[in-house]
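If you are new to this repository, start here. Below is one unmodified record pulled from the training split, so you can see the exact layout before writing a loader.
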Amino acid sequence: MRYYDLTLTDPTTGKPLRRWSSHPGGQFDPQALNVIFDMPVTVDDEPVHQPTVIIEGISLQDVTNAQQFATTITQDGKLTGGSNLILKAGMQAGLPLANPAQAATLVQGFVFQSWGNWINTDMSLSLVIVPAIYRQNAPGNFVFTWTAGQPLVDALKQTLSVAFPNVQVSFSVSENLIAAQTDVHYCATFGQLAAHVRQLTRRMLGPNYGGVRMAFGANTIRVFDGTQQTPIALLQFTDFVGQPTWIEQNKIQVKTVMRGDIRVGDFIEFPIGFTNSPGFVTTQHAAYPSFNRYQSAIQGKFIVTQIRHVGNFRDPDGNSWVSIFNAVPVLQ
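And here is the target side for that same chain:
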């Protein structure tokens, strides 16, 4: 059974302003409002479009006062007012293959834009979400100083503790990332910092080393490079919506039932020998060379670099409540 919990809170007091849920009090509500969302989550050196949410069936009061939920930009470029948003989604008990443990927070940020719409008898509220609190027109204090002989983790801890004093930071990078010379850099946004750090570290540990990646999501910053052993999410045959496929060289995409327990920077592993499982299309000998590559790579370990959660709560199509993962192989 599909599940969502969408909460808007006051950014200053934390007081809930609005809450829409498919399971209020833990019980399924057959009259729950329809929510439609498109939530990209990615490493911040590869920017994508902002997350969007549409709530259908809202009250007339919320339609006529939709702007109250959005952040206002003052004349000096600062952001004020608005609301913070937390969206949790996934599955709850009710269907034989549903796994409630896979439901978690998909996105957490502030409402940058909001507007209402009224067409015939349908009323809706649309929201544009910004996960990070700093933008080009409201820059943060990102002063990155990586001193010669200093580990990268120490330099990033200093920078991020100033810019995000209340945000948890998780590091999973090689200890061999030591600066050969001092680098001082100022950034206005988190995305600019992530791009600079990756440029500095790419190929630093060898020609196949992809560099350090940084991702901001669910009020947590993750810094990783794929060299550290972390828990692996083992995907099951019943998780898949369609088949995994290669979309670029050394990049695979897999679509699963909606799940929030896998985040950017996590390791995933595919079922061994899943191509022989019932329901999967087998590759014929005519495509034997590509089949060889597909078989060996799928049985390896991958690290997630991008996620896209797409949901339409009332749409009965199974393809309308999914998570799409892009991942790259982990070099052994």
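Two things worth knowing about this chain: The two ends are 39 Å apart (CA to CA). Residues 274-297 have pLDDT under 50 and may be disordered.
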